[in-house]
Amino acid sequence: MNQASPSFAFTSPSTPADIVAADALELSQWIRLRKVSCREVMTAFLDHIARVNTPANAIVSLRERAALLKEAGERDAQLARGEYLGWLHGIPQAPKDLTATAGIASTQGSPIFRDEVPKADALMAARMRAQGAIFIGKTNSPEFGLGSHTYNTVFGTTLNAYDATRSAGGSSGGTAVALALRMLPVADGSDMMGSLRNPAGWNNVFGFRPSQGRVPSVPSVDLFYNQLGYAGPMGRSVPDLAMLLSTQAGYDARAPLSIAQDAAQFAQPLARDFGSARIGWLGDYNGYLPMEDGVLALCETALGDFGAIGCKVEAARPDYPMEKLWECWRTLRHFSVAGSLGALYRDPAKRELLKPEAQWEVEGGFALSGEDVWNASVARSQWYNALLALFEQYDYLALPSAQLFAFDAAQHWPKSIAGREMDTYHRWMEVVIGASLAGLPVVSVPAGFNAQGLPMGLQVIGKPQADLSVLQIAHAYDQATQWVKRRVPPLLAA
């Protein structure tokens, strides 16, 4: 069924710059009302991408211009016949390179799959196409999505939208930069260890990791265990996030753990009063997590904006040993990565093409016993129950989206934070694992900028399956702060 966009009183575009600057819902209305043609939209975006994608390197595997303009013309012809596919009709999209897309290279950032061109779309991509999206290419990702710095040997490094010497984050780094630089109006990503949240925070956009099971993954060789990572939306506005989620979400019998709730709930207006909402501030877990100077202070300032919309914010602390949570995470991640990449590792020729961090994950997984995995699963359940106890007192929980500001893009990963050594390639991302292990809905909202002009994000975690509630509070916060509109990337400001 086609989804109708919420009703908005939008102006009309007058220049190509208006087209690329528009939020997705605004652009959707212009197309539906035929205030702008799909061909004009495609031309504006392709011209803009030609100007700003170098050196950002956010969009890869870009299709030929003639083919894309022809497809846009076909969308215009459909509109002329009264055939409106849905809210993404004629809107350029570039799925993350971890997502299978029919007819477009899906490399997963790996030289092993450099020439891989799927014959069919993954479910999420198919749902987006069904709503009329035109896939122009892909957004860059680190190899197999491992690590929150978007670089690989196939396409190179994606650079931060606010400082082209810095990391874009990851693994949805290409997604976040493409949004921030207005190369896409809205975009998809995925998140296992903060991959929608960390890059969103570092590029001053919104990233939403939905509840476990909200966005099903099909096809999948693992129907039951794959519970750590899944897809979700990114956007420059929360209504855009919610609208894309309404397309991505929804039960599919081929994904037995998917949530059987009507995804149309996310296509409704998000306005709501928060005069009685209570937020528990987790911060750095009472000193457990090292934080670069300025991160906590900036996020605590953002908490004041939640106070301005009526929320009461208090310091909170889960009754749980946080080092145990890290060991739980490392075990389950080793197990998951070894399962997905183990066959590649066992082939000596392909093993040579895996980056060292991928090999380390697989080797860690191979060394686990069944009891190790069982104990980690028990620890995960205990963590979930610890958060449930906090939710008896609070409606939401909050903490930073990253433990440091975007680092030098020439590094593969930061070796220390605040003088504390990082003992793995992903230890510096520990701040995001809480929501991931609990399977809870969590959004990264822009928290502001430091003195060097680098953005930071703030995670807001909701109760089990309270995705709509999380989007509603993020929307209220955005209405109060307007960070995306207040601070555009320097490249665009120039």
Global morphology: globular
The helix content is 25-40%
CATH topology name of the domain at 18-277 and 463-493, in short, is: Amidase signature (AS) enzymes
CATH class of the domain at 18-277 and 463-493: Alpha Beta
CATH architecture of the domain at 18-277 and 463-493: Alpha-Beta Complex
Question: Beta fraction of the residues?
Answer: 5-15%
Termini separation (Å)?
42 Å
The residue-averaged pLDDT reads 96
**Count of discrete alpha- or pi-helical segments spanning 4 or more residues:** 17
Structural class: alpha+beta
Q: Give the biggest sheet.
A: 8 strands, mixed
How are strands sequenced across the largest beta sheet?
7-9-8-15-16-12-10-11
Radius of gyration: 21 Å
User: In total, how many beta strands?
Assistant: 16
Question: Which features characterize this protein?
Answer:
disordered N terminus, 38% helix, 16 strands, two-stranded antiparallel sheet, 494 residues, single chain, alpha+beta, Amidase signature (AS) enzymes, 8-stranded mixed β-sheet
Can you describe what's shown?
With 494 residues, this protein is of the alpha+beta class. The chain has a domain at 18-277 and 463-493: Alpha-Beta Complex (Amidase signature (AS) enzymes), CATH 3.90.1300. It is 38% helix and 12% strand. The chain is built from 17 helices and 16 strands. The protein has an 8-stranded mixed sheet, sandwiched between helices. Strands 1-4 form a two-stranded antiparallel ribbon. Strands 2-3 form a two-stranded parallel ribbon. Strand 5 and strand 6 (156-157) form a beta hairpin. The termini are far apart.
